[in-house]
């Protein structure tokens, strides 16, 4: 049964663009959006659903649908825009649809993604949505607008305009990430959680003082962003070893075609088959408890560290006339591809976790949020990141995750069509404007 909790009552009306800029009405100022007019998103009573039985519009083998739509039972206004965040590996799409025939009413935010290499299928899907706008949202197909962010918003800008014949509005990628994350933290119940093996999804209570924090966005690469307040952020670091690294290396090593297939292989693997562990160095008598090194015997001492030694031993046996064993189709040079997948997953996740901790220490940030499509709600990834943060901080810090971790940028772009003062926490522009006027 779907969880349903109150998420506030943002029924705030936009001011007229002609409203004069005086201190008494400064909080009502907003920048008039391009045609079509923006709408308020009413998040009163919003809740996350997990409905696998819902009929999916335009489903095909190229579409990956998320099963955690956000129901907006009190939103009735027409929404005539779609948001897309086009990264190096995936194109993430967010759109609103009315809940036709539902006793609750309102509508829902839908989440899905395509491989960026399949951008033509993504655009065809948007075209199908455009053709069905009247039934889905009560708007005219000609009113549709695309809010686009990510590198692909520039790379595919002309293609989207030429094929769809709609306005395409490009939004700053970092700006959208922060707007999206702030929305999820403050507006959607049961969105943010911590992860451990004993408590896989421990939901976090809402906090009023959400700033400052560190956002670690893991896509093809990794960006680490210090957020000091509404629309106040700075990219402080990152690493090129991200989801694209995992995808690329395993594409060379295995026959897996999709990211999900690679994650499934990692689930079946045992990294001890290829990684050199502390116990391999200190011997079997080292046990599983901590010793003089302060490390467990299962701690990874060297990623893929066993490969060279074991491969060389096999070749020596062959030279001695014993011959090489017939290779299994699921192995490479005698090593299971599942073991290599798990090892690589650990290596990338551990690396990101340690760098994230160091950045949080350097910038004195207690709260660390992990987002991006690399995570995919995958237990091994979240457990590794959580363990890294707890280990290096000696338990003083935690890693925070989101149920819509891959859609921060897309949701941020979607919200860029909203008026300037909406939501339970008041508008980000209102707060920024108040600071400017206080200086004057």
SSE blueprint and pairings:
Elements: E1 47-48, E2 64-65, E3 70-72, E4 81-86, E5 90-98, E6 107-115, H1 119-131, H2 133-137, E7 145-149, H3 152-155, H4 157-164, E8 167-170, H5 173-187, E9 192-194, E10 202-203, E11 213-218, E12 222-229, E13 232-239, H6 243-253, H7 259-268, E14 276-277, H8 278-282, E15 300-302, H9 305-319, E16 331-332, E17 335-336, H10 337-362, E18 367-371, H11 379-392, E19 398-402, H12 408-415, H13 428-439
Parallel strand pairs: 4-7, 7-8, 11-18, 18-19
Antiparallel strand pairs: 1-3, 2-6, 3-6, 4-5, 5-6, 9-10, 9-19, 11-12, 12-13, 14-15, 16-17
Organism: Lithohypha guttulata
Region (Disordered): 1-28
Pfam family, one: Fumble
Offer a quick outline of the entry.
With 440 residues, the chain is α+β, with helices and mostly antiparallel strands.
Would you write up a description of this structure?
The structure is a single chain. The chain is 33% helix and 20% strand. With 440 residues, it is an alpha+beta fold. It folds into two domains: 26-187 and 408-439, Nucleotidyltransferase, domain 5 (2-Layer Sandwich); 243-402, 2-Layer Sandwich (Nucleotidyltransferase, domain 5). The strands form four sheets. Strands 1, 2, 3, 4, 5, 6, 7 and 8 form an eight-stranded mixed β-sheet that branches. Strands 10-9-19-18-11-12-13 form a seven-stranded mixed β-sheet, sandwiched between helices. The chain has a two-stranded antiparallel sheet with strand order 14-15. Strand 9 and strand 10 form a beta hairpin. Helix 7 (259-268) packs across helix 10 (337-362). The protein is globular, with a radius of gyration of 24 Å. Residues 1-38 and 419-440 have low confidence and may be disordered.
């Amino acid at each position: 049964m779907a969880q349903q909790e109150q998420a506030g009552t943002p029924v705030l009306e936009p001011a007229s663009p002609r409203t004069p800029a005086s201190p008494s009405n400064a909080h009502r100022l907003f920048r008039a959006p391009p045609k079509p007019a923006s709408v308020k998103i009413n998040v009163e009573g919003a809740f996350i659903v997990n409905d696998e039985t819902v009929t999916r519009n335009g489903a095909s083998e190229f579409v990956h649908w998320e099963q955690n739509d956000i129901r907006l039972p009190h939103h009735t206004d027409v929404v005539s825009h779609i948001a897309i965040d086009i990264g190096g590996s995936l194109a993430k799409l967010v759109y609103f649809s009315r809940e036709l025939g539902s006793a609750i009413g309102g509508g829902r935010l839908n989440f899905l993604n395509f491989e960026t290499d399949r951008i033509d299928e993504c655009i065809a899907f948007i075209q199908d949505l455009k053709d069905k706008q009247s039934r889905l949202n009560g708007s005219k197909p000609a009113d549709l607008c695309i809010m686009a962010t990510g590198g692909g918003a520039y790379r595919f800008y002309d293609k989207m305009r030429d094929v769809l014949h709609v306005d395409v509005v490009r939004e700053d990628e970092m700006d959208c990430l922060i707007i999206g994350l702030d929305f999820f933290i403050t507006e959607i119940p049961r969105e943010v959680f911590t992860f451990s093996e004993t408590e896989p999804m421990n939901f976090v209570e809402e906090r009023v003082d959400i700033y400052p924090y560190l956002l670690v966005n893991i896509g093809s690469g990794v960006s680490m962003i210090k957020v000091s307040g509404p629309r106040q952020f700075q990219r402080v670091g990152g690493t090129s070893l991200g989801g694209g690294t995992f995808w690329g290396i395993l594409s060379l090593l295995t026959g897996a075609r999709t990211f999900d297939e690679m994650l499934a292989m990692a689930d079946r693997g045992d990294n001890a088959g290829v990684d050199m562990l502390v116990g391999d160095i200190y011997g079997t008598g080292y046990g599983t408890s901590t010793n003089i090194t302060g490390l467990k015997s299962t701690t990874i001492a060297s990623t893929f560290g066993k490969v060279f030694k074991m491969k060389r031993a096999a070749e020596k046996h062959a030279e001695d006339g014993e011959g090489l064993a017939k290779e299994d189709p699921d192995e490479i040079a005698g090593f299971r591809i599942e073991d290599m997948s798990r090892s690589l997953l650990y290596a990338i996740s551990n690396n990101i976790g340690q760098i994230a901790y160091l950045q949080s220490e350097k910038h004195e940030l207690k709260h660390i949020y992990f987002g991006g499509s690399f995570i995919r709600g995958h237990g091994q990834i979240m457990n590794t990141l959580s363990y890294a943060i707890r280990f290096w901080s000696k338990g003083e810090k935690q890693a925070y995750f989101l149920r819509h971790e891959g859609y921060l940028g897309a949701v941020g772009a979607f919200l860029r069509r909203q008026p300037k003062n909406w939501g339970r926490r008041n508008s980000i522009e209102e707060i920024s404007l108040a600071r400017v006027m206080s200086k004057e």
